[in-house]
Specification:
Elements (H helix, E strand, L loop, with lengths): L15 E3 L21 E3 L16 E5 L1 H11 L3 H8 E5 L6 E5 L10 E3 L3 E2 L7 H5 L2 E3 L2 H6 L8 E3 L13 E3 H8 L1 H21 L7 H12 L1 H10 L2 H4 E2 L2 H9 L1 H17 L5 E2 L1 H18 L3 H22 L3
Parallel strand pairs: 1-3
Antiparallel strand pairs: 2-10, 3-5, 4-5, 6-7, 8-9, 11-12
The structure holds iron/sulfur cluster (2 copies).
The site of one iron/sulfur cluster (SF4) has 9 residues, from loops.
């Protein structure tokens, strides 16, 4: 496997991908049908199938912030230790947002496989992507970003090696999702997935600074660091966070996680989920005004400078664009 660094181009050598939306990298494995919650599938996965744990190897499993939180709690590890031991960097859903995926063993197997007969050793806390398989959900955010009415439907990934489809058990998609605990994961991942999809819909037209990427990575992967960013930096002097929210995020890691999505939305996309304090904002506006006055540039000269800056960023982004 080629080495990957956090902000370099990704070279994926995986045969397949359990993506966050359950899409397989090879579309020919996706059955050509749209499924609803009431559609039925015949499927069962259990230690008795001859292919048991076969799908837990040679695969890219991207982790959401909630996955990381649940997995490291299960393993009783600090975020930094968990990231170091079990993950490696990747980019998320063809964006320049850095994230992490499970680091496979040298044999290309998931490190959480206990044995061929016992399966996953963190099964009740397994990642979202593992829960989706083999039922994926079509991404409704992509359409929504363009202001179109979007549609939500499901699809089934059927791979030749997966014998689960030969088993005598029928479910509706709704029952399958309930059994796999997907609804809770969707709820917990929603705000974060929206950030990723928003970034994806912007493409590379809007460049993201290295600082913004680091912020996204830190908040998405290391809740311990994010906590200290909120409580031990100048964050609370800059942002208006009410007392009730502060108490909630101090006590509850899930609340802190959900809060991190709002902070990221505000910082990266300028939403008003978390607002800058009015006096800080006024001081910033005054500083920008004074800066403009002091440079002594005309409107045309400033526009020219802005254009050159945008062009530079654009050229840089083009050369950094993954294949
Ligand atoms: S986390 Fe568990 S279910 Fe997911 S690939 Fe690894 S062993 Fe399989
Ligand atoms: S390949 Fe299919 S049946 Fe076999 S272990 Fe994976 S999901 Fe279960």
């Amino acid at each position: 496997m080629n080495e990957k660094t956090l902000f370099s181009k990704e070279k994926t050598l995986f045969h397949k991908e359990k993506s966050l939306f359950g899409k397989d990298k090879n579309p020919s494995n996706i059955l050509p049908a749209k499924y609803t919650l009431e559609s039925q599938i015949r499927f069962r996965c259990h230690p008795g199938v001859s292919c048991f744990t076969e799908c837990c190897g040679n695969i890219k499993i991207v982790l959401t912030p909630y996955d990381i939180l649940q997995m490291r709690k299960r393993l009783d590890m600090e975020a930094a230790e968990f990231l170091h031991v079990y993950t490696e960097p990747t980019y998320l859903e063809k964006t320049d947002f850095p994230g992490v995926m499970i680091k496979l063993t040298e044999e290309g197997r998931c490190p959480f496989i206990k044995s061929k007969t016992e399966g996953c050793r963190i099964y009740s806390d397994r990642p979202t992507a593992c829960r989706y398989y083999p039922v994926g959900m079509a991404n409704f955010h992509e359409g929504a970003q363009e202001g179109k009415t979007s549609e939500e439907f499901y699809f089934v990934v059927k791979e030749a090696h997966c014998k689960g489809f030969e088993e005598d058990k029928t479910w509706t998609i709704k029952e399958w999702r309930e059994d796999q605990g997907v609804d809770l994961r969707d709820k917990m991942n929603k705000g974060w997935m929206e950030l990723v999809m928003r970034r994806k819909s912007f493409g590379y037209q809007a460049t993201l600074s290295e600082q913004a990427k680091r912020m996204f990575f830190m908040a998405s992967t290391d809740l311990d660091q994010f906590r200290s960013f909120v409580f031990d930096s100048s964050f609370l002097q800059t942002y208006d966070v009410d007392q009730e929210t502060l108490e909630r995020i101090k006590e509850d890691e899930v609340e802190l996680l959900l809060f991190s999505y709002k902070v990221l939305a505000s910082m990266l996309f300028g939403t008003n989920d978390v607002r800058v304090k009015p006096d800080v904002l006024q001081a910033k506006v005054a500083a920008i005004k004074s800066d403009h006055e002091h440079t002594g540039k005309t409107m045309e000269e400033r526009a020219e400078m802005d254009y050159k800056k945008i062009k530079q960023d654009w050229d840089k982004a083009k050369t950094a664009q993954p294949n």
